[in-house]
Specification:
Layout lengths: L1 H30 L1 H20 L12 E3 L4 E10 L2 E10 L6 H15 L7 E4 L5 E8 H9 L7 H17 L3 E2 L17
Parallel strand pairs: 4-6
Antiparallel strand pairs: 1-2, 2-3, 3-5, 4-5
């Protein structure tokens, strides 16, 4: 009987080690430069789709939502409110524990790619770990946004920017959000930026 208990304990320990190893491998893949570069490309596609489908509600299969091979989901919408333009970007991990070091870091990277002069960004995180960035642009800033596509980044520049995004995500004032805005919901629910 003690041999059976030893075997069960050993099998359980191996299972835990395997799970930890798999989680670490996923994290390395998600934070690897290939995945980061793929995410940057997706941000450019999200930007184009948000401009093309401006002021329209999200639909199933909408190009303003994307999921990377690493399981990172991002949604970006823009809506008009008079002469102001409300932007909302949401990023979440589809598997694993949502962490600011991952979802927050990718959110900060996307915000850096979308930033225009004078843009003030409001940050929030929902109880489910969906990280949100919201900002409002006036007509002049929106015109700059439309005209200015983010410049390309080579591998070393991207690695430097992504490393800085971890520090930004850790220091950023993410506000706790009530309830869920599943991704990202109606832009009118974004609150003020």
């Amino acid at each position: 009987m003690p041999e059976v208990l030893v075997m069960v304990a050993a099998a359980s320990a191996l299972g835990v080690l395997a799970a930890v190893g798999l989680a670490r491998a996923r994290a390395r893949a998600m934070l690897g430069l290939d995945h980061v570069h793929a995410f940057v490309d997706r941000v450019a596609s999200l930007r184009a789709a948000a401009l093309d489908l401006f002021d329209q509600p999200l639909r199933p299969g909408d190009p303003r939502t994307t999921v990377t091979a690493g399981g990172l989901e991002a949604t970006y919408v823009i809506a008009a409110e008079g002469d102001r333009y409300r932007h909302h970007l949401a990023v979440r991990q589809r598997r694993g524990r949502p962490e600011r070091a991952v979802a927050g870091r990718f959110l900060m990277l996307a915000v850096r790619r979308l930033r225009v002069e004078g843009m003030e960004v409001g940050l929030g995180v929902s109880p489910a770990g969906v990280h949100h960035a919201r900002w409002v642009l006036d007509a002049e800033a929106q015109a700059l946004f439309v005209d200015r596509a983010p410049p390309p980044l080579d591998g070393s520049a991207l690695a430097t920017v992504f490393a800085a995004c971890l520090d930004e995500a850790e220091r950023a004032p993410f506000e706790a959000m009530e309830g869920e805005i599943e991704p990202p919901g109606d832009v009118a629910d974004c609150g003020s930026a």
